[in-house]
Amino acid sequence: EVTRLARFMTDIVEPYSEIAASQGKSLSLTPVTDFKATLDQNLIHQLMNILIDNALKYSPQGRAITISARLIGRKWQLIVADQGIGIQAGDRRRIFDRFYRVDTSRSRQTGGNGLGLSIAQWIVGLHHGTIVVKDNLPQGTQFVATFPLNPSASLTGRRDKKQ
Ligand code: ATP
């Protein structure tokens, strides 16, 4: 669907701010310049759930998580940045693999099965986008997903029309 990003992101992020606050963390949306992009709202919502759940899961109390969306030329980016435990360079290549978890003993405490990021990558791919992980200097992790503003019609619109 053609989606106004500012409103869409606000609706998704708001409930998470309360969850974060209840965990002694802060979570906020950097004000989004309003622009429109064509996307599957259910899938992008799920992508944000995965990235935000991870940001919360791997951030100690007192840390901040910021979410933003920005327009760059004919593309747009979704960025989820945290100040959490970070991901070592050697693990970065594998975190998008199915069932891969950096530290299974630690992960067992935090739950999860290592599927989240492989689903995230699948959702981004359906939108003809890319997702990368970076350091969030001085501390933590940043996930940056980059999408074309108007991916091909195969993704969008079709499910709205009865065929
Ligand atoms: P789930 O399937 O419930 O999401 P998971 O978090 O273990 O479980 P993924 O979301 O695929 O699985 O993440 C894979 C691994 O990448 C995690 O186990 C964790 O080690 C690492 N990781 C993901 N996001 C972050 C983050 N924001 N900060 C630090 N490590 C992260």
UniProtKB/TrEMBL annotation:
Acyltransferase among keywords: no
Superkingdom classification of source: Bacteria
Single GO cellular component term: plasma membrane
Record key words, sorted: Kinase, Membrane, Phosphoprotein, Transferase, Transmembrane, Transmembrane helix, Two-component regulatory system
Location within or outside the cell: Membrane
Histidine kinase domain boundaries: 1-151
GO BP term, pick one: cellular response to phosphate starvation
Molecular function terms, GO-annotated: phosphoprotein phosphatase activity; phosphorelay sensor kinase activity
Protein name per UniProt: histidine kinase
Organism expressing this protein natively: Levilactobacillus brevis (strain ATCC 367 / BCRC 12310 / CIP 105137 / JCM 1170 / LMG 11437 / NCIMB 947 / NCTC 947)
Range of the intact protein held here: 284 to 446 of 446
